[in-house]
Amino acid sequence: MHDEENVIMEEDCSEDKLGAGYLVLTDKNLVFYTGKAKVLTFSKDMKKALDIPLQDVKSTRTEGFIIKKLVVELKDGRVYKFGVLNNRKWKETIDGARTGVGEAE
User: In terms of pLDDT, which residue wins out, 53 or 101?
Assistant: First the structure.
């Protein structure tokens, strides 16, 4: 799935504009896949909807108490909001990975 990259975290989630999918953090990128799960065959027909190099991330933050969101702002001004279970853990892990590529603030 991710040649020459180490997967750090992954989770089923949704993004406010893109809908349901699967979020993957590698040591180089934040990738969001969308698609449909096939219950009978236990497989997923997933397509890459976002592939964000960590150096393109301007900032991360958390929002919400009941519906928790991980907010990722890119240097070009785009903002993505992912509904993940532990938004603080995602934020801290992304920030740590960004430090590893020398781009944290």
Answer: 53
Say which residues have a Cβ less than 8 Å from residue 98's Cβ, sequence separation at least 6: 54, 55, 57, 104
pLDDT higher than threshold 60 for residue 1: no
Q: How far is CA 43 from CA 38, 46, 72, 80, in A?
A: 5, 9, 28, 26
Among the listed residues 50, 49, 72, the one whose alpha carbon sits nearest the alpha carbon of residue 60: 72
CATH number attached to the domain at 7-100:
2.30.29.30
Handedness of CA 16, 18, 20, 23 (dihedral sign): negative
pTM comes to 0.84
Q: For strands 79-83 and 7-15, give the pairing.
A: antiparallel
Which tens digit of pLDDT belongs to each residue from 83-101?
999 999 999 999 999 987 6
Q: How many whole angstroms separate alpha carbon 83 and alpha carbon 12?
A: 9
